[in-house]
């Protein structure tokens, strides 16, 4: 079971009040987490990653085990603590300004 922490705007869109627990079959990767998340909450399709290219949206970042995974391969294994559910997988809205 993987624990996913969503930013407030995505929790509202998905109509969830807290963190999301996902059952991942096979290897725990970013792609597997996002596939399971979008399968369980289809209203999130296109909000975290582009529906055609499946690339991460520019103002979202992925973290697990105090590590920025945003630019890691989507098929790279998650850190063991995140894959086992001991640590959460965070999807965080980035802040930009100027």
Structure description:
With 98 residues, the chain is of the alpha+beta class. The protein has 3 helices and 5 strands. It has a 5-stranded mixed sheet with strand order 2-1-5-3-4. Strand 3 and strand 4 (67-68) form a beta hairpin. It is globular, with a radius of gyration of 13 Å. The N and C termini lie far apart (39 Å). The model has no long low-confidence stretch (mean pLDDT 94).
Q: Any descriptors?
A:
98 residues, alpha+beta, Ubiquitin-like (UB roll), 5-stranded mixed β-sheet, 3 helices, 22% helix, globular
Overall body shape: globular
In total, the number of strands is 5
Query: Which sheet architecture does the biggest sheet show?
Result: 5 strands, mixed
Distance between the termini: 39 Å
Estimated helix fraction: 10-25%
Class from helix and strand fractions: alpha+beta
- Order of strands in the sheet with the most strands? 2-1-5-3-4
Could you name the CATH homologous superfamily? Beta-grasp domain
Order of helices and strands: EHEHEEHE
- The number of helices is 3
Q: What fold name goes in the CATH topology slot? A: Ubiquitin-like (UB roll)
**Are there runs of 5+ residues with pLDDT below 50, and where?**
none
Mean pLDDT: 94
Assess the beta-strand content as a share of residues: 15-25%
* CATH architectural name: Roll
The top level CATH class name? Alpha Beta
How big is the Rg? 13 Å
């Amino acid at each position: 079971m993987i624990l996913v922490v969503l930013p407030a705007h995505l929790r509202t869109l998905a109509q969830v009040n807290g963190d999301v627990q996902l059952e991942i079959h096979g290897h725990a990767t970013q792609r597997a987490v996002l596939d399971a998340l979008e399968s369980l909450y289809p209203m999130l399709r296109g909000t975290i990653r582009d529906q055609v290219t499946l690339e991460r949206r520019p103002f979202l970042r992925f973290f697990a085990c105090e590590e920025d995974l945003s630019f890691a391969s989507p098929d790279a294994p998650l850190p063991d603590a995140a894959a086992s559910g001991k640590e959460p997988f965070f999807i965080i809205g980035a802040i930009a300004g100027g």
